[in-house]
């Protein structure tokens, strides 16, 4: 017999939407995903989008929903104010915002901010992945969460102490689409397994200046007269290498980093960590955000039985 649903868990990002129907043990009964992220939703569209996906999974009308990500941003569905660091990862639920005037109980988890002068920073969504890692294995230490804005977070005993953001993914998109490197990168076919990627990472780890190395991608193409087939891999390696080099200077040799990523992104960072002499273990980000959402749901609705 199929288990009855306990809650719906939603990871609502800037460009993507993902929903899981979960039973009382956190197992997935059904899931939906789409490109209906925050950018695609006006404030009055969040509710209809959510209900359409719940209806497609035949979710009960009284089923509660827990949400993380950009739906709680300013300009999202309902703003869920940031928690200040140090933030207890097992208490995110206590600061969730309820969506008023909606037909079912929907709670949106907060993001986390860092207000220290000169180190101001914010995250929204990644804290729920970190909460999932804590709920799963009581993991502490340094975490790397790549993405459009890559986060490096220090977690100790279930508290998010501090974090730093690198605009690595956004810079790659801007440089590859809207700069003089566009034609070279568009023609490139290399990836994180290519020598060009590894060489670029090594150059940044050796202390090369990023902006000068970026222009060398264009110069190499012009001087060789070819389409620079390794340009894409080299650009990625330079940016990721610069990020890892910046963090490595504050770490002991052989320090371990927990990487929360998947697919080619995980492989790229694993290669960079190996080149940098850093130990690495990799956890799946989608699995962790789901676990973090479920932990919050269990804390919010402890008396609830499966529908």
TrEMBL record:
<dbReference type="GO" id="GO:0008671">
    <property type="term" value="F:2-dehydro-3-deoxygalactonokinase activity"/>
</dbReference>
<dbReference type="GO" id="GO:0034194">
    <property type="term" value="P:D-galactonate catabolic process"/>
</dbReference>
<dbReference type="InterPro" id="IPR043129">
    <property type="entry name" value="ATPase_NBD"/>
</dbReference>
<dbReference type="InterPro" id="IPR042258">
    <property type="entry name" value="DGOK_N"/>
</dbReference>
<protein>
    <submittedName>
        <fullName>2-dehydro-3-deoxygalactonokinase</fullName>
    </submittedName>
</protein>
<dbReference type="InterPro" id="IPR042257">
    <property type="entry name" value="DGOK_C"/>
</dbReference>
<dbReference type="InterPro" id="IPR007729">
    <property type="entry name" value="DGOK"/>
</dbReference>
<dbReference type="Pfam" id="PF05035">
    <property type="entry name" value="DGOK"/>
</dbReference>
């Amino acid at each position: 017999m199929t288990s009855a649903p306990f809650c719906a868990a939603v990871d609502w990002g800037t460009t993507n939407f993902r929903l899981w129907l979960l039973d009382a043990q956190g197992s997935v009964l059904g899931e939906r995903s789409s490109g209906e992220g925050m950018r695609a939703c006006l404030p009055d569209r969040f509710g209809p989008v959510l209900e359409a996906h719940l209806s497609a999974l035949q979710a009960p009308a009284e089923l509660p929903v827990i949400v993380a990500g950009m739906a709680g941003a300013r300009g999202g569905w309902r703003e869920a104010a940031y928690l200040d660091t140090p933030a207890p990862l097992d208490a995110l639920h206590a600061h969730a915002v309820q969506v008023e005037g909606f037909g079912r109980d929907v709670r949106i988890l907060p993001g986390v901010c860092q207000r220290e002068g000169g180190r101001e920073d914010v995250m929204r969504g990644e804290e729920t992945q970190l909460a999932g890692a804590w709920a799963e294995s009581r993991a502490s230490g340094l975490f790397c969460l790549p993405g459009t804005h890559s986060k490096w977070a220090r977690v100790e005993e279930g508290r998010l102490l501090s974090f730093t953001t690198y605009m690595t993914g956004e810079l790659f998109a801007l440089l590859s689409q809207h700069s003089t490197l566009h034609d070279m990168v568009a023609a490139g076919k290399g990836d994180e397994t290519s020598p060009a990627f590894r060489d670029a990472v090594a150059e940044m780890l050796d202390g090369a200046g990023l902006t000068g190395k970026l222009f060398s991608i264009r110069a190499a193409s012009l001087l060789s007269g070819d389409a620079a087939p390794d340009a894409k891999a080299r650009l990625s390696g330079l940016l990721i290498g610069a990020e890892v080099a910046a963090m490595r200077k504050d770490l002991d040799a052989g320090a371990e980093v927990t990487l929360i990523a998947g697919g080619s992104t995980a492989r790229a960072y694993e290669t960079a960590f190996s080149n940098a002499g850093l130990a690495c273990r990799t956890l799946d980000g989608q699995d962790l955000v789901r676990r973090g959402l479920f932990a919050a749901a269990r804390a919010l609705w402890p008396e609830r039985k499966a529908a």
